[in-house]
Write a structure and sequence with these properties.
The complex is a heterotrimer of chains A (359), B (330) and C (327). Chain A has 359 residues and is α/β, with parallel strands linked by helices. Helix content of chain A is 28%, strand content 21%. Chain A has eleven helices and twelve strands. In chain A, α4 packs across α5. Chain B has 330 residues and is mainly alpha-helical. By secondary structure, chain C is mainly α. The chains are: A alpha/beta (359), B mainly alpha (330), C mainly alpha (327). The interface between B and C is large, with 56 and 66 residues.
Chain lengths: 359, 330, 327
């Protein structure tokens, strides 16, 4: 596939590409407890299907979708932290030109320095319960080169300041900090190695709304100040639209839409995105209609043909169930929909062209 | 020496949706806990289907399978003992202290009995004690564990204290004291003593599991819906604890077999019983070691070890059921 | 309530309960051990002093006096370490017999427990870290198998192979006949040689539990988020394995240290019997054969109390290791 063309996003075109992913497929293979008979295709789950994406330097990209759509899995795949039973089945992921799938254990570890980093979903559990915050910083710094205790202390104070935490947290253990503070510490640790890309996996989901806002502001400020590429994974569209430059919408393991954030609230969209936007009521409206999406997410253990949203889509036509839609231009961005962003396949199968001759 | 099973995880990760109460048809629907349902037995009534399904699940785990086969062989020996043993185990008219030969595969004891026949018939005692004591100890453990885990406050504190006490008092010395004081000797007494020392480990685990489950939402929901206590315990909580209870049974069975052998070895059993422990007692008393009769010592001990290993191996399979992280990649 | 305080109260309560159980046991058993005890001593022609008789009665139950008065007198005796006299040698107070034997057992068990703990934990960490690979399967299976050997049988086998056949180590006892126990090197060396086989037996049969427990905990801990995060931050494998995973995986087994210790103590009783090792276990073994009730009672109490104290010490140690319980 050719690189996607964004029509009126000139600043983004100028930025060099940092990471590309082509044809990424991630599979969950639940193991054991299964007799030989049961090890058929039916037992595997395709969590991420045939995903292509490109991330430029300094971009702030959001990855949105409902639970189980594969966004966290994709995030882990991009930072090469997939754990069994998850596995990268196929696809090529390049970071700064290097195919990260080929990196050995030690090379991968070295790559963490100044490379890519991941902030986990629940900062609550991301910290070792038996080590203090300063020890955590020390561990990270010392893993990538020698650092004396004075140096560690200095760096630690810097890092804590950058996430708006007081010096006194340095001597504390994780259980002595609040959820929001722990999440900030996790962010600070990810920053310690000055990575060029950070994936934030639902960083604020476990926090209450007020702390959420504070932490998101910290993340935004940091991104602007340090200029790293940020990927924000969340199911909360509001948070994502507020913070990011570009939004990717995932459904059923696939990316179904790719739009600049500013444009998300207007313009045509993939039917799923539309339905998603509908779910957010405008508090200023006179009458509030809460939308919902009928049906349930697809069973990811079955290989799906056609558009993953077809069963729940009110606009679906025959071709939707037969052919996988590709990401094609829609408005300022891209969408994978035969109806809204039809490709040659859709055009051929649509009723209107039934009587026409081939172009 | 067998491990206590891990409490099933409360965390959810995206690939392993937590299964709700396990009813008889729920398995097989979530892939992460995918359990192979044997196609045979589907038409059998509820409890049998449950047993068949559990068996099938255990069978699919490599270690558990070996354990099951081993145990099966032992059970076969128990049933077919009269056919397998060359002589009656209580005949004492053979020449004593014979070394292994064609007539006496592991030799004869100091009392003139045939070692192999004793070995074969001895299987009955050990298996009996293992199962009887195991089941009894597990029942007591389940009773106490469920009550302590379900009713918080004074009841829980008291029962936990008693359980803890029973746990820290070293088992074998306690068994020795009890057995020494009781007037009669023999297998039933030994079974009793083993049960008294063996229920506590299971009780602790069951209590902790009940306590965890009790705070789960589905129990609260059932309580609100007005379900009666007994029904709640048996319908909602117990089915989620089958693997814990099973593991507790196997643990208790292992301890029982070891305890029985130890007591008999010390002379606290009935010396006239035909069992593996008693064989070792007599071997020690008759100085079989010094005479060089290694087979007479090796055989019964090995049999005890194999029985214990079979229980432990099956227990591996049960552990893996309750803690998905421990499952092998076959 | 602070962890330390709670554990101390628990310890004291359990101690009291154990002593009380010891008091109740002979009184609950059918038959009268006291009469049997006194009769047996009388039959050897020894004269029993009043104090000794009283001690036996208090230990085993006397027909006179209310239960409560007996109980308090019993507690008094326990505190003053008056356990009466043994059958087999009424001239020697039970407490002296125990006093001689206890150090041997403490050294044997102490050494074995520490050894089991250290090696078992390291092996468990290794097995958990390399889960599913060759080393894991080998370790798991071999320790399960070894742990299934009844300790006394393993002892017999080792005795046969190494002492009888190969004559590498002595056939039994704590030290060679003729040597007097003292703290000089010759004696210590000799004692050490005599302890090798019993120690080996205990360690081989007991280590399985540690290895397996640690392995399973390692596997669970490795699934924790903070391990993933540590990896994400590029920490060295060894750091992650030891400081992040193992250090946390270590904590649950320590809380069940009590159980393992109780098992080791039980195992040592049988092993000492097999090797005629002059510890508390051997004394118990012989007391059982002789139906020496006062001795058995006292031994049981001493063994239980020692175990409880050891568990208490480990609980206190736990405070230092897990910052979450410090208040």
């Amino acid at each position: 596939m050719t690189a996607p063309i964004a029509l009126d996003d000139a600043p983004r075109l100028e930025r060099p590409t940092l990471m590309t992913a082509r044809g990424v497929n991630v599979v969950y293979e639940p193991s054991a407890g299964l007799s030989r008979r049961k090890r058929t295709a039916g037992a595997r789950i395709w969590a991420v299907r045939d995903v292509d994406l490109t991330l430029a330097e300094g971009e702030f990209v959001g990855l949105v979708g409902e639970s189980g759509c594969g966004k966290s899995t994709l995030g882990y795949a991009l930072t090469r932290l997939l754990r069994p039973p998850a596995r990268l089945e196929s696809g090529r992921i390049e970071f700064d030109g290097t195919d990260i799938a080929t990196l050995s254990g030690e090379q991968l570890r070295a790559q963490r320095r100044g490379g890519f980093a991941l902030v986990l979903q629940s900062g609550m559990n991301a910290l070792n319960p038996v080590r203090t915050v300063e020890h955590h910083v020390g561990d990270v710094l010392r893993a990538h080169g020698k650092a004396g205790s004075a140096e560690v202390h200095r760096r630690a104070r810097e890092l804590m300041a950058s996430v708006q935490l007081d010096d006194e947290v340095l001597g504390r253990f994780p259980h002595e900090l609040s959820g929001g503070m722990r999440q900030r510490v996790a962010i600070a640790l990810a920053l310690a190695l000055e990575p060029r890309m950070i994936v934030f996996d639902e960083p604020t989901t476990a926090l209450d709304v007020i702390v959420q806002a504070a932490v998101m502001n910290t993340i935004k400020d940091l991104q602007r100040a340090k200029g790293f590429t940020a990927v924000l994974i969340s199911h909360d569209l509001g948070v994502v639209l507020d913070a990011t430059d570009r939004v990717l919408v995932m459904y059923g393991g696939r990316i179904v839409e790719d739009q600049p954030s500013g444009e998300m609230l207007r313009g045509p969209h993939h039917p799923y995105t539309e339905a998603l936007l509908d779910c957010y009521a405008d508090p200023r409206a006179e009458v509030i209609n809460l939308g919902g999406i009928a049906g349930s997410p697809p069973d990811l253990s079955l290989p799906l043909l056609g558009c993953s949203f077809a069963d729940r889509c009110e606009f679906a036509v025959d071709v939707c169930r037969e052919v996988d839609p590709s990401l094609l231009p829609l408005g300022p961005g891209l969408a994978a929909c035969h109806v809204r962003a039809p490709g040659p396949a859709a055009a051929q199968n649509s009723p209107e062209s039934a009587g026409s001759t081939h172009a | 020496m067998t491990t206590l099973p891990e409490t099933p995880l409360l965390k959810t990760d995206s690939a392993a949706p937590v299964a709700g109460p396990v009813g008889s048809g729920a398995a097989g629907e979530d892939p992460a806990r995918a359990v192979s349902i044997p196609s045979v037995g589907r038409s059998l009534p509820g409890p049998f289907r449950f047993v068949a399904r559990s068996f099938g699940t255990l069978w699919s785990n490599g270690k558990a399978r070996s354990g099951l086969i081993l145990l099966g062989l032992m059970i076969a020996v128990v049933i077919f003992a009269p056919l397998l043993a060359p002589y009656s185990p209580t005949r004492t008219d053979f020449e004593p202290y014979l070394n292994p030969s064609g007539l006496h595969w592991i030799g004869t004891t100091g009392n003139g009995e045939d070692g192999l026949s004793q070995l074969i018939y001895g299987t009955r005692v050990s298996l009996f004690v293992g199962f009887a004591a195991g089941i009894t100890a597990t029942l007591i453990a389940a009773l106490i564990g469920l009550i302590a885990g379900y009713l918080p406050g004074v009841v829980d504190e008291t029962l936990s204290f008693v359980t803890n006490l029973a746990l820290v008092i070293p088992g074998i010395p306690l068994m020795i004291i009890l057995a020494a004081y009781l007037p009669t000797r023999g297998v039933p007494v030994i079974t009793l003593v083993v049960v008294i020392t063996g229920w506590a480990t299971g009780a602790r685990v069951i209590r902790s599991q009940t306590s965890t489950l009790r705070s789960r939402d589905f129990v609260t929901a059932a309580e609100f819906a007005g379900e009666r206590l007994l029904r709640l315990v048996f319908r909602e909580i117990l089915p989620n604890m089958t693997s814990v209870v099973a593991a507790s049974f196997f643990g208790a069975a292992v301890a029982a077999v070891l305890g029985e052998a130890s007591l008999e070895f010390l002379g606290l059993g009935d010396p006239a019983t035909v069992s593996w422990g008693t064989m070792l007692y007599w071997a020690q008393n008759n100085k079989a070691l010094l005479v060089g009769q290694w087979a007479l010592i090796l055989a019964p001990g090995l049999a005890i070890a194999l029985l214990m290993v079979s229980f432990a191996l099956i227990n591996f399979g049960v552990d893996a059921l309750s803690n998905p992280r421990l499952r092998e990649k076959s | 309530m602070p962890y330390a305080l709670r554990k101390t109260i628990q310890f004291l309560l359990t101690l009291w309960a154990a002593v009380t159980v010891n008091f109740l046991l002979p009184r609950l058993m059918p038959g009268s051990p006291t009469d049997a005890a006194l009769a047996k001593i009388a039959s050897t022609g020894q004269v029993v002093t009043d104090a000794q008789r009283r001690a036996i009665e208090l230990q085993l139950g006397s027909p006179s006096g209310s239960v409560f008065s007996q109980y308090f007198a019993y507690l008094n005796n326990v505190v003053h370490l008056q356990f009466g006299v043994s059958y087999t040698d009424p001239t020697q107070p039970v407490i002296d017999t125990i006093r001689q034997a206890l150090p041997w057992t403490l050294v044997l068990i102490g050494f074995c427990t520490i050894f089991q703990f250290v090696i078992g934990t390291l092996l468990g960490v290794l097995a958990g870290w390399r889960r599913g690979r060759g080393i894991d399967t080998t370790l798991t299976l071999s320790t399960t198998f070894a742990g299934a050997f009844p300790p006394f049988w393993a002892g017999l086998l080792l005795l046969y192979v190494f002492a009888f056949k190969f004559r590498w180590w002595p056939l039994g006892g704590g030290y060679t006949d003729g040597l007097t126990p003292s703290l000089n090197l010759t004696f210590l060396g000799d004692a050490a040689a005599h302890s090798i086989l019993p120690a080996l037996t205990l360690v081989i049969t007991g280590m399985g539990g540690w290895v397996l427990g640690m392995r399973n905990n390692m596997i669970s801990t490795l699934g924790e988020d903070y391990v993933t995060f540590a990896e994400a931050n590029g920490l060295r494998t060894r750091t992650v394995a030891l400081r992040y995973a193992a250090r946390n995986a270590l904590l649950p087994p320590l809380t069940s240290f009590g159980l393992t210790l109780a098992a080791v103590v039980g195992g040592s009783v049988l092993v000492e019997g097999v090797f005629s090792y002059p510890g508390v276990g051997l004394v118990l073994y012989r007391a059982v054969s002789n139906r020496d009730y006062p001795l058995m009672q006292a031994l049981f109490l001493i063994i239980t109390v020692t175990t409880l104290v050891a568990i208490y010490l480990v609980d206190m140690l736990y405070v230092r290791l897990d910052p979450r319980v410090r208040r």
